[in-house]
Amino acid sequence: MPLGVVPAGHKQSLDVATITQGQNRFFSVLMLAWGLIADIDIESEKYRWMGSARIDYYAIQRIIRLRRYNGCIKFVAAPGYETFGEPADPEGETISEVKSSFAQHKGYCGPALQMKDFNRKIEGPFVSVWLHNVPWGGEDTLAAPDAKFSDGYLDLVVIKDCPKLTLLSLMTELSKGGHVKSPHVLYFKVKAFVLEPGTQLDDGSKEGIIDVDGEVLARGKGTYKSNYKTLMTYDKLYIKVDQGLATVFSPSTIS
């Protein structure tokens, strides 16, 4: 393409999620995964020589030797989804970009979080927690079929427990989004989200991996390449979305 030529198309607003842990910030436009999906995505890197087949191959391995994780998620439900989870006691704290030294020295760090608003929770153990900003998790993975590019919400896909054979079947439904109809899957929208990750249910000496936009954000003890340094620690994370903060070019307008 000649220099200076802009491809024909439309501008599309895109939500941006801010992930906060202390003074550390990470901006996400795609997804956050913890549990089964994160383990498959990151640990299958050892089979990159297999190409895209590595995901399916390792998914079978990981489901056969299924892990469940202790932990808790808290959230501010989107309108119409307030019945999901159980009531949570407000934490009473505020994370604000106005008073943050991060904001003073490194620029924008995301919207303020009023912790008193986090009034719903789901306790573990969990098989998988998958938080999505857009419908697709990959070229053939319709992870969150109701997600919109700029609706101001994140789509949450949670599996707490599921028979292994059923879980294998759900993996085959990912290409068309049918997995969210399963009674073993909780699928709903949130305005903001807190992840409190814990240890593996069957081995308290091992923790998990937190995967954001396909990259490792945090690795717990005993995980794949756990000696590698990560931006954040395997501990509580706060996530909130800014509606339409980014603008992307697209061949057509996407709702």
Automatic annotation (TrEMBL):
User: Annotated Gene Ontology MF terms?
Assistant: lipid kinase activity; phosphotransferase activity, alcohol group as acceptor
Q: Which Gene3D superfamilies match?
A: 2.60.200.40
Q: Which domain of life is it from?
A: Eukaryota
Q: Which Pfam families match?
A: YegS_C
**Domain YegS/DAGK C-terminal as annotated: residue spans:** 121-219
Among PANTHER family, the record links this protein to: ACYLGLYCEROL KINASE, MITOCHONDRIAL (PTHR12358:SF31), SPHINGOSINE KINASE (PTHR12358)
* Name by which UniProt lists this protein: YegS/DAGK C-terminal domain-containing protein
- What organism is this sequence from? Solanum stoloniferum
